[in-house]
Amino acid sequence: MKALEKDNQRLGLIWIDAHLDSHTSATSPSGNPHGMPVAALLGLNDSLLDKISANQPIMDSNQIILTGIHSYEEVEKQHLDQTGVSYQFMRQVHRVGLKRLLQKNWKSLSRQCDAIGISIDLDAINPCDAPGVAVPTYNGLKLTELLDALSSLPKPIALEVSEFNPYADRRLKTANAIFKIIRAVFNLPESRKDP
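^ that's the sequence the OP posted. Answer follows.
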């Protein structure tokens, strides 16, 4: 998978998250933009998001697949259903297996995209494995399962790991999880300098 070299090339995105992140400023109960990034990427007509993402590329619905969802508001689901974005709840992860789902997502995106990135919101992981997040959400992914699935994929063009809250971390469990995620994605050896 080569890096994007031209403006007209398409980026695919595997989005791993507990939440759908598809609110707009009109539907968000909190008004907090951290619940709106998928809506912004999809260009869901919103004056606030339009100001933030001015002159930025907008993704088509077939360029993003969300996985590991287990906490959302119905209006977010409606937004994604209206735009045709694929999303997978935790019950699908349990039924099919995370590794198989992510491999299937990669294959699907690679048919229509020139490169693929991965975005991982740490609250998708069970708090017992990654407690240092802003919004802990139970019944999520096991860290070992996530690492195994990530290591089975080709290297992405980019990796984003978000929602780390060091003040909520315990004994550096989440910090260590981040290092493990990076190593799994890019097939890197362990380092003695990790926390």
